[in-house]
């Protein structure tokens, strides 16, 4: 399952990024661009990401996978656009091919193989406030932070 190794690389990259910045950050969201031709299952990738980040500083973060559509260019008829999709009753989803939908000849992919860490959204985490106890008799004293 290459989604697990990809999720591991994403987590390591995000940790490296946040550790290189001053201050204390909490990662809220990680955005990843994934091309339609990359062969990456978004749900499996999210599952792996959530498994890897459990009980880590990234545990509350969310992985957002943004799909990048496949585009092709045909050198024969000069078509540029979406590829032909396999129409097979056995396929549970549409399957892009590297075939020109106009003339049927092999086409070159110009987009769709991406797998790119696009952005990391984080929030600065402030240090916890200290609550000082009043001096003297503490019976019946409320310990509310100022």
Describe this structure in words.
By secondary structure, the chain is α+β, with helices and mostly antiparallel strands. 21% of the residues lie in helices and 28% in strands. The protein contains two helices and eight strands; from the N terminus they run αβαβββββββ. The chain has helices at residues 2-20, 42-53, and strands at residues 25-35, 62-68, 71-73, 80-81, 85-86, 95-96, 108-111, 115-124. The strands form three sheets. The chain has a three-stranded mixed beta sheet with strand order 2-1-8, covered by helices on one side. Strand 5 and strand 6 form a beta hairpin. Helix 1 (2-20) packs across helix 2 (42-53). It is elongated, with a radius of gyration of 25 Å. It starts with a helix and ends in a 22-residue tail after the last strand. Residues 137-146 have low confidence and may be disordered.
